[in-house]
Amino acid sequence: MTTAFTRDRIISDLAEVLDLPVDELTEDVSLIDLGLDSVRLMSLVERWRFEGAAIDFVDLASDPQVGAWLEVMGAE
């Protein structure tokens, strides 16, 4: 299964795992500052890979900002 990873979808998934409102996830915010830890990151990576994303843990962990993740994920 391959899913389109839109900006809204990625931000929605992040908001869900961080238990935050979507509007707190601006492109320049640090996900670490918002409570992202390695367990949550790994769950997102696994979910997104299952849905067709060609990413791994290091791709996202190396720059834990929303904007960087949108770029890595090729968000439309």
Automatic annotation (TrEMBL):
Residues 1-76 form the Carrier domain. It comes from the Bacteria. This is Phosphopantetheine-binding protein. It comes from Rhodococcus globerulus.
